[in-house]
């Protein structure tokens, strides 16, 4: 990259970027011989054609590729790409974290978590936030700190189909339309507005169906074709089709038995969505999992070769050490597992992105002049506040409990474990400043004297059997925890924060730092719980005699290595370390301050109370840890109830990364407000909403269920069969998808489509008049859903198709126009393996949430009628209509899907098959690894219907070794649902009835 200070136009005037002679270097770049050796050139690197911005990116990449040696090309396939001094190339790294601001680079603007940004339902805002994050990424590049990258790993579009997912905070929505629109907006912001160059290169993640953390490297996301096409892929496709992102990251999990790291769809499907070259990366150490926990390949060269062939361009493995990847790919090339052409293809993808970033331009491209002044700029601070304000969702507001009137609220009790702290998540940046809920409210009311209350947590001292207290230390670094205090002074006092399921954190009163394990001893030196191994977690286990054992409950995988030694105990010198339960210290818990009593006292003396409760992102749910339940922590729920008893004018603020089952609160608390962990401006945003300076208009992006009983197992990805998400859920949610209230009211007119009928490739505009019937200006999120009245296949109860957030002044009206394309109304036809626009009538539903529908219209869609199934042609077994006790599995390691039986009597169904005058033979491609025989029965009408024929399946030599089996059929004529009933462990790839 050119040194700063030399303008682009001066370099061009000096002739330092000569044009490429037509056709010369491109041909050399495509040849294996030329690509294996450095091209001879006496010209300075600055004069080489790949530096010439007047050429096309394809020409420049072709020139550079032709100048690289084989070893240099292989070196570029690791995440940490080394410098190539002879060509003037600097080191490059894929992967900077930018979900809601830049992470791990030092102080940078921290916006609301991604799920909070999504709650704004404001694509224009997300584009502005993305642009700000992109500017800050460019601002950091001049210093090039550790972790610097212009290839940003964001946004995350994995669908929030289950609110127990530990990484719920990272995604946008349970709906693919909403996720697609918002990810496109954020990606465009990160990329910038230049038609050719990139400000940053965003990578969308994690492909595919990555929505569980338990055993995430070995768990298998089973996706039947309709779920895969209509749901999981549909979230990724919009941003890629809009060229709003520059590649995807493969996920850790398996998809239908095959690791996502070697998913052939990376090439075969994803690249076809985009118009420009993409750079695909693996998740961290994904390549190593192929030979490790997944055991999918025997050797690293085989595994890396398979990943490269599938479409991976950059290998994120072994941290900053590329040697293993380089050695593995070199071996793969020498053994013929990959070709030079396949190597060149991956390198070309990498170089194309680097070229579009302006790296090879003499002046660094159009974004090179963005400086560090962009980081934490006044404009970004203001944007952070706007984003935090727009993200707030008003869940309930009985009898206009909100907004609070500052003229009448002379004293306000603000209490709760999140009232005085802003928590960050694993991918948060470092906030340059923090405005807590209490601080924001104090500023809004004009002084601390009007605000009372504390955090509502107990302050305790723990007295050992010998009379000495657990003692920490003052100062920034605290001290090693000892059993040494002879009294309950500040060094012996700890604030106990309850995060649910018995897990608490202990914050030292001596210095306000949390106690945690450093691998040898305990020390109070952490600003807040965090890190990959969250080592600040404890359980205070009450014993029969009233004493407590203090169990270390840090990151479970770390604690497992300790075996039975999980309890705190003091050694001979008083130092506290870990011991087995029988050797644990027994402590008398003395309450120095009763947090609930203190909160109740403040609430009784106040005009109103605000209770701020919620989650701790490093503990309640996070990467590698799903939530076992959705309840508010017991201690926090008790605090809410106690404050409400003391003062019925109680407002509860939920500050969480996901939905909670707050049924009691919904029934009893007058006003409920939800926000995610919203970054540095959280307090100001909440205060402005609570006091009516901002009229809330945030909307929920996922269903809030009443109970875990409303949900199937976390690993069940079939949202159709399991009735999951608002698309298929038939129960009564606590809050529906799209829900959110306002301080004003809106009346909707009748929705009016611009046409009564719609054909393929056509678009209709639905207009609806929205009137603000209240006394306050406000935003309304107008949501357009459709419902198909009849279909061959089960359809969603309703499905979001378009939306807009519109500002409507009090007493005024606005006409909202929403576009609906025929393409939006297609679904995946498993009978023919393609999208289909089915003929029929659709209801057009316009409203304020998925269940608050204000107006309806009908739309006639002229499409096609799905014909009866033709099973005489070869039919993929995976294209079934229904199933029981089967799994979709990998047909081979390279590609394809088959159906595997899990127990005798398993079946797959093919609805409405036309067998004509009679099928006489059943033929199937099957594999059976086990000895002995299995069988496939062909039955008509039901799994136990008339038997038409039986094919015996003997051992074929392995799960990927397929043989053809046949069976004579009897009575297989006319139109029937056909069932294949499987017995014995076997796989079936395809079949036909002729």
TrEMBL record:
Identify the species of origin. Answer: Streptomyces armeniacus
Start and end residues of each CBM6 domain: 873-994
**Per its database record, what is this protein's job?**
Catalyzes the hydrolysis of a non-reducing terminal alpha-L-arabinopyranosidic linkage in ginsenoside Rb2 (alpha-L-arabinopyranosyl-(1->6)-alpha-D-glucopyranosyl) to release alpha-D-glucopyranosyl (Rd). It is not able to hydrolyze alpha-L-arabinofuranosyl-(1->6)-alpha-D-glucopyranosyl (Rc).
Q: Which GO terms describe its biological process?
A: arabinan catabolic process; xylan catabolic process
InterPro entries per UniProt: Actin-crosslinking, BXL, CBM6, Cellulose-bd_IV, Fn3-like, Galactose-bd-like_sf, GH, Glyco_hydro_3_C
- What protein name applies here? Exo-alpha-(1->6)-L-arabinopyranosidase
The family note in this entry says: Belongs to the glycosyl hydrolase 3 family.
Q: Which UniProt keywords apply?
A: Hydrolase, Signal
Q: Which GO terms describe its molecular function?
A: alpha-L-arabinofuranosidase activity; beta-glucosidase activity; carbohydrate binding; xylan 1,4-beta-xylosidase activity
One Pfam family from the record? CBM_6
Which SMART domains does this chain map to? CBD_IV, Fn3_like
Q: Show which residues constitute the signal peptide.
A: 1-27
């Amino acid at each position: 990259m050119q040194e700063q200070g030399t303008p682009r136009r001066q370099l061009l005037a000096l002739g330092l970027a000569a044009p490429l002679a037509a056709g010369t270097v491109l041909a050399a770049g495509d040849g294996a011989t030329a690509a294996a050796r450095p091209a001879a050139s006496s010209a300075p690197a600055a004069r080489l054609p790949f530096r010439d911005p007047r050429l096309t990116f394809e020409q420049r990449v072709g020139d550079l590729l032709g100048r690289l040696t084989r070893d240099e090309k292989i070196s570029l396939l690791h995440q940490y790409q080394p410098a190539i001094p002879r060509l003037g190339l600097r080191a490059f790294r894929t992967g900077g974290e930018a979900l809601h601001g830049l992470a791990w680079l030092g102080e940078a603007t921290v916006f609301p978590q991604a799920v909070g940004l999504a709650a704004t339902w404001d694509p224009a805002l997300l584009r502005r936030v993305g642009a700000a994050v992109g500017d800050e990424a460019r601002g950091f590049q001049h210093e090039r700190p550790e972790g610097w990258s212009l290839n940003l790993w964001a946004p995350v579009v994995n669908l929030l189909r289950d609110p127990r997912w530990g990484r719920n905070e990272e995604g946008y929505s349970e709906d693919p339309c909403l996720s697609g629109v918002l990810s496109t907006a954020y990606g465009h912001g990160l990329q910038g507005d230049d038609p050719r160059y990139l400000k940053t290169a965003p990578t969308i993640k994690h492909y595919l169906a990555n929505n569980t953390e338990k055993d995430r490297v070995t768990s298998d996301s089973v996706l039947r074709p309709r779920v895969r096409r209509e749901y999981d892929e549909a979230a990724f496709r919009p941003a890629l089709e809009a060229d709003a992102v520059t590649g995807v990251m493969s996920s850790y999990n398996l998809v239908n038995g095959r690791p996502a790291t070697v998913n052939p769809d990376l090439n075969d499907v994803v690249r076809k969505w985009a118009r420009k070259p993409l750079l695909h990366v693996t998740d961290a150490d994904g390549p190593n999992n192929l030979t490790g926990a997944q055991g999918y390949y025997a050797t690293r060269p085989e595994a890396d070769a398979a990943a490269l062939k599938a479409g991976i361009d950059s290998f994120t493995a072994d941290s900053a050490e590329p040697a293993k990847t380089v050695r593995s790919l070199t071996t793969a090339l020498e053994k013929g597992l990959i070709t030079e052409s396949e190597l060149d293809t991956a390198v070309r993808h990498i170089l194309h992105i680097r070229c579009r970033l302006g790296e090879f331009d003499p002046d660094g491209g159009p974004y090179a002049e963005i400086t560090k002044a962009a980081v934490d700029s006044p404009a970004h601070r203001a944007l952070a506040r706007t984003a935090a304000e727009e993200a707030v969702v008003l869940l309930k507001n009985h009898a206009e409990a909100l907004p609070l009137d500052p003229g009448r609220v002379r004293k306000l009790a603000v209490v709760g474990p999140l009232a005085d702290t802003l928590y960050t998540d694993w991918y948060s940046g470092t906030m340059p400043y923090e405005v807590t809920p209490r601080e924001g409210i104090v500023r809004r009311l004009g002084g601390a004297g009007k605000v009372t209350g504390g955090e509502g947590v107990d302050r305790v001292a723990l007295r050992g059997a010998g009379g000495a207290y657990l003692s920490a230390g003052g100062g920034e670094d605290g001290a090693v925890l000892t059993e040494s205090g002879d009294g309950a002074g500040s060094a012996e006092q700890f604030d106990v924060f309850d995060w649910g399921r018995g897990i608490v954190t202990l914050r030292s009163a001596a210095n306000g730092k949390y106690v945690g394990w450093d691998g040898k001893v305990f020390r109070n030196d952490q600003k807040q719980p965090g890190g990959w191994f969250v080592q600040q977690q404890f359980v205070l286990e009450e014993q029969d005699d009233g004493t407590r054992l203090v169990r270390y409950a840090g990151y479970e995988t770390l604690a497992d290595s300790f075996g039975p030694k999980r309890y705190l105990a003091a050694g001979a010198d008083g130092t506290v370390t870990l011991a087995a339960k029988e050797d644990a210290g027994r402590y008398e818990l003395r309450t120095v301050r009763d947090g609930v009593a203190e909160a109740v006292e403040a609430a009784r003396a106040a005009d109103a109370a605000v209770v701020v409760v919620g989650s701790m992102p490093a503990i309640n749910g996070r990467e590698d840890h799903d939530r076992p339940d959705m309840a508010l922590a017991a201690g926090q729920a008790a605090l809410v109830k106690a404050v409400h008893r003391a003062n019925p004018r109680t407002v509860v603020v939920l500050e969480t990364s996901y939905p909670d089952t707050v049924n009691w609160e919904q029934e009893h608390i007058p006003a409920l407000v939800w926000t995610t962990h919203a970054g540095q401006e959280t307090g100001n945003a909440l205060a402005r909403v609570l006091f009516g300076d901002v009229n809330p208009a945030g909307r929920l992006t996922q269903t809030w269920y009443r109970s875990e009983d409303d949900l199937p197992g976390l690993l069940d990805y079939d949202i159709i069969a399991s009735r999951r998400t608002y698309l298929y859920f038939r129960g009564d949610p606590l809050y529906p998808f799209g829900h959110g209230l306002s301080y004003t009211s809106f009346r909707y007119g009748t929705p009016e489509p611009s046409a009564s009928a719609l054909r393929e490739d056509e678009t209709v505009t639905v207009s609806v008049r929205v009137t603000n019937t209240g006394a306050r200006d406000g935003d309304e999120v107008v949501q357009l859903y459709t419902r198909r009245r009849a279909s061959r296949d089960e359809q969603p109860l309703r499905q979001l198709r378009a939306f807009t957030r519109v500002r409507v002044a009090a007493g005024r009206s606005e006409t909202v126009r929403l576009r609906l394309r025929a393409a939006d109304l297609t679904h995946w036809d498993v009978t023919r393996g393609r999208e289909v626009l089915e003929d029929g009538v659709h209801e057009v539903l316009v409203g304020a949430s998925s269940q608050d529908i204000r107006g309806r219209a009908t739309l006639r869609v002229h499409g096609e009628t799905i014909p009866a199934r033709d099973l005489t042609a070869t039919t993929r077994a995976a294209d079934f209509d229904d199933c029981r006790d089967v799994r979709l599995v990998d047909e081979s390691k390279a590609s394809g899907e088959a159906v595997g039986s899990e127990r005798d009597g398993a079946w797959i169904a093919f609805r409405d098959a036309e067998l004509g005058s009679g099928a006489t033979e059943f033929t199937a491609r099957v594999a059976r690894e086990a000895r002995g025989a299995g069988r496939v029965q062909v039955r008509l009408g039901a799994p136990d219907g008339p038997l038409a024929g039986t094919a015996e399946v003997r051992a074929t030599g392995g799960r990927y070794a397929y043989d053809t089996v046949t069976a004579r059929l009897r009575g297989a004529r006319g139109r029937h649902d056909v069932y294949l009933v499987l017995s014995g462990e076997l796989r079936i790839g395809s079949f036909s009835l002729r």
